[in-house]
């Protein structure tokens, strides 16, 4: 190609002649080319043309630099482009990989080579270079897969082409890396690369080049084809029968999309950046022309397109790599064929159709093949030719197909298999079958939510949830999930749980309550698949209430018997409770692995156990608060008397405490607190007790109990001190005695969400830090200014504050939803102190980039807030203060409701 606008040799020579140093002319040419190519990209020029234009321009610059060398015409040296540049592909900041190839010793050319490379560096070209003789190339290529791969794609930029041809002959398959050996190595390399990304295309910040379904997968196909056929032109795979025309178009268009994303990414980042970081996703969506809708952000639409493209490319990669395996590795093997039925057989562990017309003649076989694989777990997968036939016939899945009793029966039977449910649903999704059979599922394929809480797309999360449900049935997971394992093993119909899991997030992205909309879809699914009424109602109920248990455990005071009774009333019976508990465990683990910790496990287990007790007692028999308090006190007294504490001393202390204290603490904790308080000398300052509790209620978290004179700045001082001590507060229970002493219990984890453990030095540090801070609360520690983590910076949104009085009228509830930032809780403590507000209770929930905290507060007289203007000022102050810690702030109005 010739493009004088991009590079004019005559003009360039004229520029060179004007100055003694060539550097200015080279830099000017590079700058002008960069500007023109960027302009062409903005104008929408075809991406194939752009990356080849950049490579062509680089060719011209390198050839001009090489021509200045004394050795330029020597037949013993040549300049070669290798790697991606050797393919004639260059993105804005891609490496320019060069090989200076020698026929003999490098010494005669040393000065020329050094001058050449120095010039390239001086003009700002980022080159990766090697200097080798033909013999050295042969030696390195034999030992290193990367070297042989780079050399295979070489082309001559300057010098004698015969030199490169001699090198290519020295590294051909007759000397090293037969096509079978090369394929095995490339397959292993791909498996290792995919493992770094957890073998999924669906990462929050995927790598356009290296993630599954990325550009490297396409290049792997091309490399294997080049080694076997002698060409890396993917269109020739059609002529060789490895691809058909529609598949080639998918491959070519997918590559073009990823090229366009990578080109824009390099331009935005100003460097060779292949990671789709949050830093760039929104800007990329804008550059590439995506616009938001009422239900989806522009960035979510862009990322859904990305995920769908890479999933299609992964499917083609599977097909082609299996094709290569059959041709290169198994062609000479004797076929081991085992019939399954008249439609399918197993050839060398892979299932295939008995003839190419199976799906056309019997469309139900499109679903049957996945059921057969689940029923025969020894089958490793689908043969490449049959994958292609599935793709070619999936258009047969229409409304008539979906309502055919044969097909509905086959699909339901898959959920009742002992093994392979998740694996084959995932295959159905990858081959485009699941989204066609369930159009509602097709809408969530590749759909992501732009946050840090949901780290998978909706379809990947859904299938991951089913995978976690399957784990709960395996003996090896009994220790990790003991209660869920026992419950799962006694579920009457586990298949209903998988169906509920499949539909629990099916309505994401439609607008409205996805739980309610999903329940409607789930009911229609069950009806179409002829499930009994009881099964249908259970599946639909689970979908509608799949968030109920996690939100109750994390946002409600589940030590309160009335809260437990309310939850039990909503659940209704033990069967629903069992199904919901197991579904909740799997949902949390499948959403984000970092969410699951021992503290959440203990909350859910406590909620399950207390609800089970309430259901046994009967929903018509609400808990008797006085009886519960009496039982707690009596059990605590038994412990105290055994430990030598006088009953009278305990009862004197308890007379100063309200009912809430005994409702919100276990008997063992009441005894623990009471013994320490009775023995504590107030002159020694605040009493701080710390224990890594083995109690089931707080398993895995550390309980910190504080007993000290009450004053309004106590909460602010405490949370600020804990912030400085790198503690993450999970729960706060704050009680004030009639003698104006505060008895506060905090449940904490380390800042990374892990357990503090039993490290004596760490516990001593925490205890001393709190004693020092609380000995003089008026001078409590200042809020630490910490750097906001990179990912959190990209999720700034206005804090939402809701203030209302609880039904009893005794307390005010303040609900806060805000971006998570270092020191947020300490800032909240300072704001409440400034407003002379006391904190009676707090539930702290962090989900990804968002915190959802609930504070139970009162005014200085321990009364609910009754002044609407005070509430408005409090609300606005919280919004203003927390917004000022964000990269961007914005106006926001939150609801306030004074009264029940």
TrEMBL record:
Annotated Gene3D superfamilies: cca-adding enzyme, domain 2 (1.10.3090.10), Nucleotidyltransferases domain 2 (1.20.120.330)
Domain of life: Bacteria
Keyword Transferase: yes
Gene Ontology MF terms: [protein-PII] uridylyltransferase activity; guanosine-3',5'-bis(diphosphate) 3'-diphosphatase activity; phosphoric diester hydrolase activity
Region (Uridylyltransferase): 1-339
Segments forming domain HD: 458-580
Domain notes: Has four distinct domains: an N-terminal nucleotidyltransferase (NT) domain responsible for UTase activity, a central HD domain that encodes UR activity, and two C-terminal ACT domains that seem to have a role in glutamine sensing.
UniProt name for this protein: Bifunctional uridylyltransferase/uridylyl-removing enzyme
Taxonomy of the source species: Bacteria, Pseudomonadati, Pseudomonadota, Gammaproteobacteria, Pseudomonadales
The encoding gene: glnD
């Amino acid at each position: 190609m010739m493009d004088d606008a991009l590079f004019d040799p005559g003009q360039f020579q004229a520029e060179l002649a004007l100055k003694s140093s060539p550097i200015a002319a080279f830099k000017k040419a590079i700058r002008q080319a960069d500007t023109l190519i960027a302009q062409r990209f903005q104008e929408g020029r075809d991406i194939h043309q752009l990356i080849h234009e950049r490579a062509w321009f680089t060719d011209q610059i390198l050839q001009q630099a090489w021509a200045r060398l004394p050795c330029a015409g020597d037949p013993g040296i040549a300049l070669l482009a290798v790697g991606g540049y050797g393919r004639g592909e260059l993105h804005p900041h891609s490496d320019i990989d060069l090989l200076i190839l020698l026929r003999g010793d490098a010494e005669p050319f040393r000065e020329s080579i050094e001058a050449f490379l120095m010039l390239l560096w001086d003009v700002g070209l980022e080159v990766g270079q090697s200097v080798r003789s033909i013999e050295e190339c042969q030696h390195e290529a034999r030992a290193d897969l990367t070297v042989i791969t780079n050399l295979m794609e070489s082309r001559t930029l300057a010098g004698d082409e015969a030199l490169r041809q001699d090198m290519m002959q020295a590294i051909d398959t007759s000397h090293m890396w037969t096509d079978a050996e090369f394929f095995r190595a490339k397959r292993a390399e791909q498996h290792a690369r995919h493992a770094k990304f957890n073998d999924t295309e669906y990462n929050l910040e995927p790598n356009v080049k290296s993630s599954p379904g990325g550009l490297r997968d396409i290049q792997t196909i091309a490399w294997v084809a080049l080694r076997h056929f002698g060409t890396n032109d993917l269109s020739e795979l059609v002529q060789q029968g490895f691809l058909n025309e529609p598949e080639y178009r998918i491959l070519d268009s997918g590559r073009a999309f990823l090229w366009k994303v990578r080109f824009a990414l390099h331009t935005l980042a100003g460097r060779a950046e292949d990671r789709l970081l949050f830093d760039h996703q929104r800007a990329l969506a804008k550059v590439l022309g995506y616009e938001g809708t009422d239900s989806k952000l522009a960035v979510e639409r862009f990322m859904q397109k990305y995920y769908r493209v890479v999933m299609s490319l992964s499917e083609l990669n599977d097909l082609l790599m299996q094709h290569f395996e059959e041709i290169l590795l198994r062609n000479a093997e004797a076929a081991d064929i085992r019939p399954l039925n008249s439609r399918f057989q197993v050839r060398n562990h892979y299932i295939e159709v008995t003839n190419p017309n199976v799906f056309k003649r019997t469309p139900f076989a499109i679903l049957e093949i996945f059921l057969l694989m689940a029923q025969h777990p020894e089958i490793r997968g689908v043969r490449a030719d049959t994958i292609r036939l599935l793709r070619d016939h999936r258009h047969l899945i229409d409304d008539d197909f979906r309502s055919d009793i044969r097909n509905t029966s086959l699909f339901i039977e898959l959920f009742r298999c002992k093994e392979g449910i998740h694996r084959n649903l995932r295959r159905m999704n990858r081959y485009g079958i699941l989204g066609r059979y369930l159009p509602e599922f097709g809408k969530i394929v590749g759909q992501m939510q732009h946050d840090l809480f949901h780290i998978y797309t909706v379809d990947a999360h859904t299938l991951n949830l089913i995978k976690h449900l399957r784990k709960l049935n395996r003996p090896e997971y009994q220790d990790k999930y003991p209660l869920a394992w026992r419950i799962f093993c006694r579920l009457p119909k586990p298949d209903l749980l998988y169906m509920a899991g499949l539909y629990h997030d099916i309505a994401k992205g439609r607008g409205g309550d996805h739980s309610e909309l999903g329940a409607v879809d789930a009911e229609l699914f069950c009806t179409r698949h002829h499930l009994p009424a009881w099964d249908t109602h259970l599946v639909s109920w689970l979908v509608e209430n799949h968030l109920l248990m996690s939100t109750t455990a994390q946002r409600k005071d589940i030590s309160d018997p009335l809260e437990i009774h309310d939850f039990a009333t909503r659940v209704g019976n033990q069967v629903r409770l069992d199904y919901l508990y197991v579904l909740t465990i799997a949902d949390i683990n499948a959403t984000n692995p970092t969410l699951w910790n021992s503290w959440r496990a203990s909350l859910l287990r406590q909620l399950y156990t207390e609800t089970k007790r309430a259901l046994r007692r009967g929903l018509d028999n609400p808990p008797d608060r006085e009886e519960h308090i009496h039982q707690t006190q009596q059990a605590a007294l038994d412990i105290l008397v055994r430990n030598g504490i006088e009953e009278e001393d305990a009862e004197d202390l308890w007379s100063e405490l309200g009912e809430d204290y005994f409702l919100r603490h276990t008997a063992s904790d009441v005894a623990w607190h009471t013994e320490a308080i009775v023995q504590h000398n107030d002159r020694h300052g605040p009493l701080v007790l710390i224990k890594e509790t083995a109690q089931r209620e707080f398993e895995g978290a550390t309980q910190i109990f504080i007993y000290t004179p009450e004053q309004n700045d106590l909460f602010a001082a405490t949370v600020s001190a804990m912030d400085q001590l790198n503690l993450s507060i999970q729960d706060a229970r704050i009680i004030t005695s009639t003698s104006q002493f505060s008895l506060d219990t905090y449940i904490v984890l380390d800042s990374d969400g892990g357990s503090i453990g039993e490290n004596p030095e760490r516990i001593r540090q925490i205890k001393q830090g709190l004693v020092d801070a609380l000995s003089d609360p008026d001078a409590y520690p200042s809020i630490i200014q910490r750097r906001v983590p990179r990912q959190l910076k990209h999720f700034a949104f206005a804090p939402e504050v809701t203030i209302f009085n609880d039904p009893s009228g005794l307390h005010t509830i303040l609900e806060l939803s805000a971006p998570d930032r270092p020191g947020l809780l300490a800032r909240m403590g300072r704001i409440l102190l400034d407003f002379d507000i006391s904190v009676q209770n707090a539930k702290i929930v962090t989900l990804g980039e968002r915190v959802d905290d609930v504070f139970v507060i009162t005014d200085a007289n321990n009364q609910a807030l009754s002044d609407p203007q005070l509430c408005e000022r409090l609300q606005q102050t919280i919004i203003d203060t927390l917004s000022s810690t964000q990269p961007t702030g914005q106006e926001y109005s939150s609801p306030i409701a004074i009264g029940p």
